[in-house]
Amino acid sequence: MIKPIVKDVFFLGQKSTEATKEDLYLAKDLRDTLEFHKDACLGMAANMIGVKKRVIIVNIGFVNLVMFNPVLISKSSPFQTEESCLSLEGSRPTKRYESIEVAYLDEQWMPKPVSYTHLRAHETSAHL
Q1: Engineered SS bond to 43: which of 39, 49, 58, 86, CB 3.0-4.6 Å?
Q2: Is 124 exposed, middle or buried (0-12, 13-18, 19+ CB in 10 A)?
Q3: What is the pLDDT of residue 60?
Q4: DSSP per-residue letters across the chain
Q5: What is the mean pLDDT of residues 72-91?
Q6: Residue 111 and residue 89: Cα distance in Å, rounded?
Q7: What is the percentage of the chain residues whose pLDDT exceeds 70?
Q8: Is 73 within 8 Å of 101 (Cβ atoms)?
Q9: Nearest to 127, CA basis, from 37, 34, 48, 20
Q10: Cα–Cα distance, 108 to 96 (Å, whole number)
Q11: What is the pTM of this model?
């Protein structure tokens, strides 16, 4: 289901809790919402649709990948950039990385590692 984008800075700043198998429904909500905003967005976190759980979705070119409880394992080659967010007005400076490694649980609750470089690394790290 397409969910409204949360713009409440206080809500967005709160720490998300670990996702459980009961949160698998979030994959569909995140997919539907990201697809709706595909012209302006490459990824989002569950808090952007009003759920304080550690779940993100990232467009990896040909598919939107949902990650439950993602953990940044390593990062390299930091650089300064500017980016915007559907939840916040305008854009702001931020540090991102040219390469990252992430561990997460997939939709079958199986652990997965993934490595990204360039744009996919930037977008994924924005939501971790």
Answers
A1: 58
A2: buried
A3: 86
A4: ---PPP--HHHHTSPPBPP-GGGTTHHHHHHHHHHHTTTT-SEEEGGGGT--BSEEEEE-SSSEEEEEEEEEEEEEEEEEEEEEETTEEEEEEEEEEEEEEEEEE-TTS-EEEEEEEHHHHHHHHHH-
A5: 89
A6: 35
A7: 91
A8: yes
A9: 48
A10: 29
A11: 0.90
- Look at residue 127 in the predicted model and tell me its pLDDT: 64
Q: Which pLDDT score is estimated for 128? A: 67
Read off the pLDDT of each residue in 83-97 and give the average, rounded to a whole number: 88
Q: Please name the residues in contact with 33: beta carbons below 8 A apart, sequence gap of 6 or more.
A: 2, 3, 5, 44, 48, 49
